[in-house]
Every structure is written in C-alpha cells, then in structure tokens.
C-alpha cells in the first residue's frame, strides 16, 4: 500500500519531467529536421514563411550535386572512413591495454602516474599543433592520413573510462586465474576483454565520432585536397557555394548520416558502457 501511494504521488512529477524532456528533445531535433527539409526544397522555398517542413515538390537535385559534382563527397567519405576506422580500432585496443595496467597491475606509484596521465587532459590540444607539426615533418608523415591516425590512437578519456570499468570487475576472477597459472596477457585477452564488451563498444563509437568530426587537425596537417576528410570537404563546399543554401544542407546531411547510423546501432552499448564505467571510481 505504501509503495502504491509513492507511485501515485510521484506520477505528476514524473509526467512533468517527461514533458520537459520531450520539449527539449523537439527543440534539439528541429535544426536537423530543418536541414533535411531544406536540402529537398527549391531555392525559392528556403526562406518561405511560415516554414514549410514538408516540401510540396521535393527535389534530389542538390543531393546529386553533392555526390556527382567535380568535387564529389565520395572521396571525402572514403578518407574519413579510413581515418576514423583505423584510429578507432587502435584507440580501443591501446586504451584497453593501458587501462588494464592501471586497474589490475600492481606497481609502485601507479595511482600517482595515473593522476599525472589524467592531468594531460587539461592541456589545450591547440597548444600541441606546433610540436606535432615539427614531429610529423621529421617523421615524414605530414600531409598524410597517418598524421591524423597515429595521434588519434591515444586517448586519455578512453583509458580513464576503461579503467573505471575494469575496476568494477571482481578481483576474484583475476585471482582465480592467477592460481590456475594464467599470466596478465592471458587474463587480459581471455577474461577481461570479453567481460568489457559494452565498455569497448562504447569507446569505439565515441572515438569513431571524434575522428569523423575532427576538423582542426585535418585543417592543420592535410594540404592535398585528395586527402581531405568530410569536415574539410564540407567547409570547402560551403565556401564555394556561399548562396546555395540547399546544397549546403544537402552536404551537411551527407556528412551526418554515418553518425546517425553508428549511434542507432550502438546506443544501447553507450548507455550500458557509461553506466558500468561509473560504478566504481
């Protein structure tokens, strides 16, 4: 009876919160819907008031222009997919390796070293552009995709998130494996990684989105237009078509589609991984 009273008394509050969240969701999704709608309109319909959310005569002309023009988005897509996929795989594996060391391997000064490692997050990435430029020139990878892929494989956030998840795994599992004669490598690959699938999937999705949307590093370290990624290609398209609002929205729609697909596929892993990573700090 007491539980029933609590549920009844809490219903108005939950309903209010739900309505507020629904309103915020609508506000946040409206620019995206306007972008899709504008990409299917004719130029004369762009500034029509009141806004016509569903075009009377939708046209795919602007989308065809984006994909079949002299500077097709196909090249930019392939470049971005290459950089984002390789960087995501490398970042996920290396972060898991480092996180295991900070969470499961006992050594002197481990916590102090981890705090020092975390403090690097306070350094603005723009400060590192000049040192990176000098290093990439010396290594011969400036103006190549490797200048984006290699730095992208090291993520402090990924190490932190996976370490928190590994700490939530009972130590008895590792201790039993040690008793049976297993070493750290065998425990890492045979026990920890299979249990950490939600966290690994979460990091992979987040890192993929970071790599896909990276504009600053691509702008600084890529010169050859054939190596351009989606953010640079989109910026070039906007600069060359300053009054083609329909084409701009079509190009923006093309650039955001992979992010929607990736999130739609992995949203349950993101929620589960972030929840589990916050269990123990």
TrEMBL record:
> Which PROSITE patterns does the entry link to?
ABC_TM1
Per UniProt, subcellular location reads as: Cell membrane
- What GO CC annotations are associated with the protein? plasma membrane
Q: Which residues form the ABC transmembrane type-1 domain?
A: 77-266
| Organism (species) | Paenibacillus dendrobii
Q: Which UniProt keywords apply?
A: Cell membrane, Membrane, Transmembrane, Transmembrane helix, Transport
Q: What is this protein called?
A: ABC transporter permease subunit
Similarity remark: Belongs to the binding-protein-dependent transport system permease family.
Q: Does the keyword Cell membrane apply?
A: yes
């Amino acid at each position: 009876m007491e539980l029933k009273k609590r549920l009844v008394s809490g219903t108005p509050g939950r309903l209010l919160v739900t309505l507020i969240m629904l309103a915020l969701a609508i506000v946040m999704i409206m620019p995206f819907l306007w972008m899709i709608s504008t990409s299917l309109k004719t130029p004369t319909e762009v500034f029509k008031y009141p806004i016509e959310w569903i075009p009377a005569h939708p046209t795919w002309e602007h989308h065809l222009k984006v994909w079949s023009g002299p500077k097709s988005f196909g090249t930019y897509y392939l470049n971005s997919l290459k950089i984002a996929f390789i960087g995501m795989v490398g970042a996920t594996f290396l972060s898991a390796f480092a996180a295991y060391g900070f969470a499961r391997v006992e050594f002197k000064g481990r916590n102090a070293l981890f705090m020092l490692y975390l403090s690097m997050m306070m350094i603005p990435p723009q400060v590192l552009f000049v040192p990176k430029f000098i290093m990439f020139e010396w290594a011969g990878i400036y103006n190549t995709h490797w200048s984006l892929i290699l730095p992208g494989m090291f993520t402090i956030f990924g190490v932190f998130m996976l370490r928190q998840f590994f700490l939530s795994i009972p130590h008895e599992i590792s201790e039993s494996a040690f008793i049976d004669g297993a070493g750290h490598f065998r425990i890492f690959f045979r026990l920890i990684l299979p249990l950490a699938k939600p966290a690994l999937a979460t990091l992979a999705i987040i890192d993929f989105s970071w790599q896909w949307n990276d504009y600053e590093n691509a702008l600084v370290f890529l010169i050859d237009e054939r190596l351009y990624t989606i953010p640079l290609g989109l910026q070039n398209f906007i600069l060359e078509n300053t009054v083609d609002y329909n084409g701009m929205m079509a190009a923006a729609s093309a650039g955001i589609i992979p992010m929607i697909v990736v999130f739609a596929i992995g949203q349950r892993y993101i929620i589960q991984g972030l929840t589990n990573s916050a269990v123990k700090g």
